[in-house]
């Protein structure tokens, strides 16, 4: 295993930068192969406006592993007590809050201020800087169209304006703040699930499990890092999914759960005992699937990397 070491990887992703691990595996069918596993920074959800929709949306988003920040220029709405599940609450003029947040291409931003005057203030500041992965704005079709026309007349790029989801959210007939929050979150999930085209040898999954990276950084015991390098059929794991296993069992992460994960865990115990990395094939098809009460199954190829506790004993990482 090469790339950033565990300490550097955790710190790098925590700073909002990408990280990478390279796995040099021994595939019995194809010989040695190299796989690249990228780690994208945590996806921040930035809510510009602390009204009733934001209040509902924070609770929903936090359950789905978004790191939520709320900003409002009114003290009574930018109150940590209103948003106990938010990671950060900022009370400042919107332009100042946006500057302080330093929006990145990995962020999701929802503009939901108390009126289109302030919506326009937010959009102007965002559109002049780095575009986030997602940018949406609350409002009726008529009002959002009028604001777009105004921004076009001011010279803002059509390409950037086309990326603004307005009105925000999926069309599910939402009316109440909670329902609108669900429609927005559904759209956020859709954006988050969209995949970039992977390069040769690059595993599709790019999300960062910070609990797993933290374990890799801080553990003082031997562990096995399991990564799915190939998936066929309807096996539950994703290519690039990671799990860390120590002698006590699963330490962090997942390769899909269920019977497949149990098989990986048993193989990981053997790797720990032998202190030797290896590739395993997990089958959940035919009689194996039927025996587990599964309607359908598939196969996974999983690389089990032995990671000794003493860092100086590990292979040199570049």
From TrEMBL:
It comes from the Bacteria. Residues 45-188 form the XdhC Rossmann domain. Gene3D superfamilies: NAD(P)-binding Rossmann-like Domain. Residues 219-282 form the XdhC- CoxI domain. PANTHER family: ALDEHYDE OXIDOREDUCTASE MOLYBDENUM COFACTOR ASSEMBLY PROTEIN (PTHR30388), XANTHINE DEHYDROGENASE SUBUNIT A-RELATED (PTHR30388:SF6). This is XdhC family protein. It comes from Candidatus Merdiplasma excrementigallinarum. The lineage of its organism: Bacteria, Bacillati, Bacillota, Clostridia, Lachnospirales.
